[in-house]
Amino acid sequence: MIVLGIETSCDETAAAIVRSDRKILSNLVVSQLDEHRPYGGVVPEIAARSHLDHIDGLVERAIEEAQIRFEDLDGVAATGGPGLIGGVLVGMMTAKAVALVHDRPLIAVNHLEGHALTARLTDGLDYPYLLLLVSGGHCQLLAVSGPGAYRRYGTTLDDAVGEAFDKTAKLLGLPYPGGPAVEQAAKQGQPDRYAFPRPMRGRPGCDFSFSGLKTAVARVAREVALDQKAVADIAASFQTAVAEALTDRTRNALRRFKSECPAGRALVVAGGVAANAHLRATLTALAGEEDFRFVAPPPALCTDNAAMIAWAGIERLQRNMTDSLDFAPRPRWPLEDLAAAS
Ligand code: KG4
Ligand code: ZN
After folding, report:
1. Ligand 1 atom closest to 161 (CA)
2. Which of 45, 173, 224, 281 is the most buried (most CB within 10 A)?
């Protein structure tokens, strides 16, 4: 089975061709970073126009690089939400056109499901597994037992963790996007220089909170002279606080998962923040303590890409979970709604 995947829900235009034996035949991403950087964040109007400029050429290149023809496709998958509606419309419209012209099934993929199933593409992991999904817009712990089969253990009560990285970067005068910049700055920093809070640590349950941590970082950033050393120390102290907070919540989730899904033996991290090396190291240690396998996709498949959308499309196609050509993009689309929608 060969599927074309299209991803346009945020600031990356992406197209990929993936085969059901887990081979990625092509995987192309055009980043709009330079277009959004002057504004310090993603501007939806600019994003939608840029997706429109790039998507047709990118799909053609993905087909070429995979050395296939459109007729070889078994299905066309595109992100149907959640995300910036202008961009999602561009991707869905393109996918519908290809599906219609070549008479192939359409699969509208939930972007979060793309992240959630990436470990199946990269590591051939079996269901069920526990997933920590950490991105710019989301921070959740989920038991995953199949496409469309998610049980949410916890979520953030306020900000997403990627947002906390992005805001911290702004406060420290680091460039956009914040996550990689904070990680880079933290390399030279002293992680115990500032005692930032570890929100929710020690409390029962699996929910997260990052607003208190953000406020603490803002206070210190205002009070000290932000020379190179202070920036590095704040970045390192912040990154450590985040990793400890995430690890504490994930430990609770692992214990619940063990009792509810005794067949599961793996902890997976996914989403843009999963590219963070310090977080990966902390979670590796936690999984080891709990006698779980730890799986983290390579960083390029943690941040937004179309291979993950094509793969989720394959898993859905294999189960006849396809969508009609009048599928309406959904700017908001919680993962737990998937079972009901399918
Ligand atoms: O999954 P993603 O590419 O897009 C969304 O669906 O949100 O995640 C983007 C988020 C941004 O907040 C970015 O700052 C963060 O992931 N991020 C990182 C790193 N790379 C990207 N955060 C921490 N460390 C990184 N290395
Ligand atoms: Zn994402």
Report:
1. 12
2. 224
